[in-house]
Amino acid sequence: MGAEQKAIIFTESRRTQNYLLRVLADSPFKDGIVLFNGTNTDDRSKQIYAAWLARHQGTDRVTGSKTADMRSALVDYFREEGRIMIATEAGAEGINLQFCSLVVNYDPLGYTQPVGEHLKYMVYTCGRPLACLAWSSAPRHLGARDRFIGWSAEARRRNLRFLAYNPRYLIVPYVQVKHLASHILGEMARRISSDWERTSGHPIYFLETFVDPERHRGTCYRAANWVGMGRTTGRGKNCPNKRPNRSIKEVLGYPLTPRFRELLAKVE
How far apart are CA 150 and CA 261, in angstroms? Predict the structure, then answer.
């Protein structure tokens, strides 16, 4: 994970994982061990999760899915304090640890496991990573987007699966290539629908993302012909009132077909 003193051990079973934990409990690394498996019901994982939840409550890091948030908490802990991660293959399924390493070390938003249907991409040259992109299921309610598409509530319920949301996009900081970010977005637009259909059984008609104007201007998206659809309200899904409880973000979108409104408005 970008540190000389860290190690990840993979094992096929929980039994072996527990055995390794007992062996390492008497070593100098005992205080920095992180277990990573399909359930993570052990007391240490629960403590890490509770501390992570208290730290990020009310922010976009908390997705509302305990499984996804538990994974994010354990990966964050391993990056910041852990020394050894013991991971079962089942627990690590869907987690690209090189992807996680780059995102948690270089993206100020940190790593969050995508929710629902999702894809992760890594872009390489000569064996070295250039960029990471994550795509996931789109948020259910998003006023600016819904007005832009012009679909009914029933059409949104039926067709939300045809949208993909881009929660993370990282160009690693040691890469300095003009127009690379917008070029990669163009390549994504050409292939993501077919990749999604291969993995999830249906195409994608529309892409969307958020840009925090306090951090970025979204230049690479605009250069790749993404369009501004408006701004968020700054209220999360669990907001108890109408006052913003997080930063207000710009909502950008990219139609993958000229017929996107027609296709997304269908309720048959």
Answer: 7
Average pLDDT over residues 5-28: 82
Kindly list the domain boundaries of the chain, sorted by start residue. 1-108, 114-268
Asked if 41 and 119 count as a contact pair (C-beta separation under 8 A), the reply is: no
Name which of 163, 171, 120, 133 is nearest 254 in CA terms.
Answer: 163
Q: Edge-to-edge strand order for the sheet containing 128-137?
A: 118-125, 128-137, 163-171, 206-211, 250-255, 227-231
Q: What's the pLDDT at 15?
A: 86
Query: Is the confidence at residue 1, as pLDDT, over 60?
Result: no
Q: Which fold has domain 114-268?
A: Aminopeptidase (3.40.630)
- Cα–Cα distances (Å) from 250 to 49, 138, 178, in that order, read 30, 15, 24
Residue count (the chain) = 268
CA nearest to 206, candidates 157, 120, 146, 132: 146
Element holding 65 (H helix, E strand): none
CB 187 within 8 A of CB 130: no
Mean pLDDT of the chain: 85
> Model-level pTM greater than 0.85?
no
Terminal alpha carbon distance of the chain: 48
